[in-house]
What we know:
By secondary structure, the protein is an alpha+beta fold. The strands form ten sheets. Strands 25-26-27-28-37-34-33-30-31 form a nine-stranded antiparallel β-sheet. Strands 11, 13, 14, 17, 38 and 39 form a six-stranded antiparallel β-sheet that branches. A six-stranded antiparallel β-sheet has the order 24-23-29-36-35-32, with no helix packed on it. The longest helix is centred in the middle third of the chain and has 30 residues, at 340-369.
Amino acid sequence: MKKIVVHVIPNAHLDPVWLWDFREGLNEGVATCRTMLDLLDANPDLTFIRGEAAIYEHIRRTDPATFDRIRKLIRTGRWDVVGGTWIQPDTNLLESETLCRHYDTGLRYFREKLGVKVKCGWQADSFGHTAGLPDVLAAGGIENFAFTRPPQEVLPLKTPAFWWHGRGGARILAYRAPVGWYGCERDEINRRFDQLVPYAKKSTLRNIAMFIGLGNHGGGPSQRLVDDVRAWARAHPEFEVRFGGLHSFFAALRREIAAPGAPRIDSVKGEMNFCMRGCYASVARFKYGYRRAEHELLRAERTTALLQRAGIASASDLTAAWESVLFNSFHDILPGSSIERAFDEQIDEVGGVRHAVRTTAFRALNHLAGRVRITLPRVGRDHPKAVPFLLWNPHLQPVQTFVEIEACLDHRPIGAYNDRAAELPLEVRVGGRPVAHQVIATEHDSFGNLAWRKRVVLPVTLPAAGWNVASVGWVEKPAVPEPAAAATGRGQSIRNAFYTVSAQPGTDGIRIRHRGKDLFGRRGLQMTTVADNWGSWGAMAEEPAGVRLTETMGRWKITRVAVTESGPLRAALVVRLTSAKAHADLTLRLNAGVEEVAVETRVFTDLEAARIKLVLPGARSVECEVPAERVTRSTEGEIPVLRWLRARNGNKGFAVVSDVLAAYDLEAGDLRVTLARATRYARAENLDQSKEWWRPTVDRGELRARLSLLPRNALVEQAAALMTQPPLATQVWENRTGDLPVTGSLAQLTSGNVQLLALRNAPGTNDVEVRVKNCTDATQRPGLTLVGKRCALGPVEPGAVATFRIGRSGKSSRVRLGA
């Protein structure tokens, strides 16, 4: 029998933000790499692995000499570049495109700056892994994947090495070390090897990996660890012990399992979850801003790329914005497990991204407005003209929706309507034609007696990746068409053709009837507060009491109800629910002719060690979106969800779409949505409120989110896209000399049932890059019309992520992430 080969893989896991801020984390990256370079120089047999392009880039900018030393060791094979990502992200809570962009950005960086093609993914400390990850890895040419979480006691695996299959055909050789974790203590080497011996003697595989390094705050292996490895190897000649990297280990493992008579390894399909479930809801004040930054960045990127391709606007560089979004998906930032001061700064960074991309989109759309022929109705000599708005649809399919616009109808209040502002007659046009509209409350609450600013909601149909022009103006005899459908409100209820929503003070639940039947039974839509005494990560060992939070702390009652909009196009019902140390205002809206209940939640909490949940009865299982995939879950307990889910209870059910909410659970036939989690910052142990009461509680104050309730068979992907990236309405100016028509389209996905992940300018080229995900079980052949040219993108396998580049001629080619 051949010797067992123990591949000792030195590494230095580094959290750039955790119990410290980003400055300390990044500079520790410099210090650790300098220390490791000296250690490698002193030990010619030693190796080292290092991932995260963001760390390398910080070293390149800060310490070029160290960066050059790293490049030299890479060429010798002793410094192994792994991972393929910008930073080690969480993979349960980020957008599908953000996950793809990690590998696209990281792999390109490693190729261009370090001259290497990374084939081994590495997630030392991320808290579980989405079912979509294998197909994303395969889309970047990554063949192997090593990880340490969830551990064996949480996620049992038959063998440490296994094939991880993606629905898109990916087959990734994955490995979780059978003994230990990614790091070790200074005196642990002998104990670690002693643990390995009994496992190795019964293992069918002869190649075994063991990770060493001081971990978390950088560090890497010390000289003592290196010496202890050598000493143990000398004392155990029956083992072959060698220092190595992930690429050399996986190469040996592949040779072994490919040899004749080799042992078979297990196959795994689907997500590798769950662990650290508290992270799905911790620090919502960061999470919500982060998710909105992702959505706004994707919308701005698509908008500017299309306008640049059409020759309307110049190219925009969003590299810095993407680097910030990628950095903030790190697995101790996005999951909510860092210190308060760090979150203050990361919130600032994410806010900077949002402002930057809004400004970028605003400037690009102003270029479009300068080209569109915008004419307004003529008026008398001393009468104000209507105010025009450019309406932009960022999606590659036509959109039928409602938009809100607000404008000053004159430069000063209209004196003839003082003290009767509600009587001011308005005319709203789209594409030059009058349309039905509804006046709604302005965003300000001042000068109610003055006729000056007005806000309206109106129905629009916008072409794919296209525009139209709306206007609102004071017209004494306006043309106001009758709406095709109606939504109305009266008393304490609202209704449209599909739903009736009502609430009564003193009761527990909001009654929602769908096509004549109670959607949530007799209980209605409710809220609850449950005890949550667990720290930032939740139940770190998956203790049942932390997986299922069932201890009710307080009952919620409806205390106020008001109809704030009563039609004819939209009706709104505001319901205040109150409990001990918390209250919530839910605004439920119905649009005319739309089978959807839109809900805005505004929660104020002064709780500690608790969660506030929205309760939707009637769910035994859910199909839900996760990064780069969709999965079905029926086990009770906390689960992460991306933008949508379908809940089922026999042949009944409903769908939920949300812009930012990510933490759900199934409990006793209810779907419960976490709206707020009151824990402490960077707290590992359970909460004892009698001790150190002065430490700040996470997410005290106000949190806002949006969700929609739809029929179970609704087109949830389209609904989610519209919610997270709604059309933009920008006030512009009259432009009678424009050379573009009042409405037009720049692009459209013409065939193929695929999810558009991104459309952007391809890096370093004049091409446009389109990335799609096939969420169906059949091969799709999407087509694209781009600025008047038809492009066949090529087949996309079931479940696969595919990236296409389109040249000026309209010819497309499929490329890998990082190309």
